[in-house]
């Protein structure tokens, strides 16, 4: 509080209270704000050290070849000549865009994606729901659905080539035993792509199954219990609770599945070699044929760059559409 005082003229006045001195006297330093640690020297340094080998390999084997391929697409690079070759500008891109083989292979790839993506997404959700509700031997269902996914593509292709073999294959015998005519699964242009789609669905279903199973485990059980008290049945719970809450998982599954289907190569090349009459020739096989059969690396790099733009555009459009329609929780 203020203290009353009298100056030499006799007038009364007030004296302001003295400020308390900081501990340690007048010369004590005020505490400084804690310094933010640099990620390179602080707690983030161990994480960067762990990531450094992966980043180095990623730059060396992914980013580096991608940049070199983009540069190579501007030159008439050949597999039998050293160096990049003569500068071609955009001629390789113009050649690919004007090639009927490129557009037909692109359509075959899109058609394969249409045949495989919807059943893989739908069946992955259905089987995940069934496995989640199974009380006994749940581990067996998870293992059974995921096991084919870990098989190499060559093994899967050989298994299904045997199943499609006329008069000897399992599917051929099943069809003829039902009284139907035996189809030429891999030799008929009308059946070849469908046969490859069936093989791919059987092979890769386990990946989507695991993603959906993880998404189902994140949904609170209390929501189902409350809805059951309100009189909701299993179908209403799936339609009103499960499907909306799995919207993000479904978006992820669709994007990954579309990208994987667009990049199809192994099973097509092993089972049909792009036939019959190039009816199952994908874009990657077109790039393979141009680069390793025609020995024109520059033209193959241009075609692969165009295909990368297509995949990037499709993925971006789907992500934008799903984010706009995503429900607010």
TrEMBL record:
PROSITE patterns: ABC_TM1. GO terms for biological process: transmembrane transport. It is a multi-pass membrane protein. Its main location: membrane. InterPro entries: ABC_transporter_permease, MetI-like, MetI-like_sf. It comes from the Bacteria. Residues 1-40 are annotated as: Disordered. Keywords: Cell membrane, Membrane, Transmembrane, Transmembrane helix, Transport. Pfam families: BPD_transp_1. Residues 25-36 have a biased composition (Basic residues). The chain crosses the membrane at residues 48-71, 110-131, 143-163, 191-214, 245-265, 299-321. One of its GO terms (cellular component) is plasma membrane. The keyword Cell membrane applies. Residues 106-318 form the ABC transmembrane type-1 domain. It is found in: Cell membrane. This is Sugar ABC transporter permease. It comes from Actinophytocola xanthii.
